């Protein structure tokens, strides 16, 4: 099969021809039709996830396709089922930037579920990790209608889901966005925008919200910026980092709750975000779709900024 992989940690991803791995007990083999790109892909290539690995290490964690084999003990899935999910399993190395991928049916791994009737494969592939992260983070924050929230990284994969989910709950959303994306993110529920390229976000927000905000959801990997943004949160509020960059000093704050967010109960989160999309309560904005052989170049430039939603991969 064709797959995008690295031969060792630190290598550049490249397109390779690799054998198909067949499922063992509790495993499901999916012939993929679509995948999507996430920041975690480069983290895996760099060895940042503390999990066992096999090499060549096939990258990609999100995908959609059809079940072609099931291992002993698998329940709820059969050959021929059209599925999507997060294919994150130990050992790492059987990812979704490939024609086939393995997923393990276990709650401490990724999550897999049937694709709702009528949902396109690329939409199903774009939902899992970003959507699950946004939904889980908002549930952890727990804002009520009428409260306010700053979302930093609002036009990226996680951010655009978070903006829509928060706005649907009646939360006043302040979203970071470049000027050219202002109308785009407002169209998805943001009440206000801040141009993060025009100066410190926290300083700009204080001009329009001098009393601060009730919560901050910050997708960036800038600890100093996160600390400044957390300073906007009113007493008793919440600041969350899905990038896990909150420092021990911030985590110890008694004034606000600070969370380095990690997903729990992935099957229920996947079910929740899939239901939101299937019912039309959120849209899944796809910025572009690329072929499998274009993935190495996409990953090489994925930190350049300017994203508007998700990049999907046609397998």
Tell me what you see in this structure.
- Helix 3 crosses helix 4 and helix 3 crosses helix 9.
- The protein has 315 residues and is of the alpha/beta class.
- The chain has ten helices and 17 strands.
- The termini are close together.
- The mean pLDDT is 95.
- Helix 8 links the parallel strand 14 and strand 15.
- Strands 3, 5, 6, 8, 9, 16 and 17 form a seven-stranded mixed beta sheet that branches. Strands 12-11-10-13-14-15 form a six-stranded parallel beta sheet, sandwiched between helices.
- The radius of gyration is 19 Å and the shape is globular.
- It folds into two domains: 157 residues, Quinone Oxidoreductase, Chain A, domain 1 (Alpha-Beta Complex), CATH 3.90.180.10; 131 residues, Rossmann fold (3-Layer(aba) Sandwich).
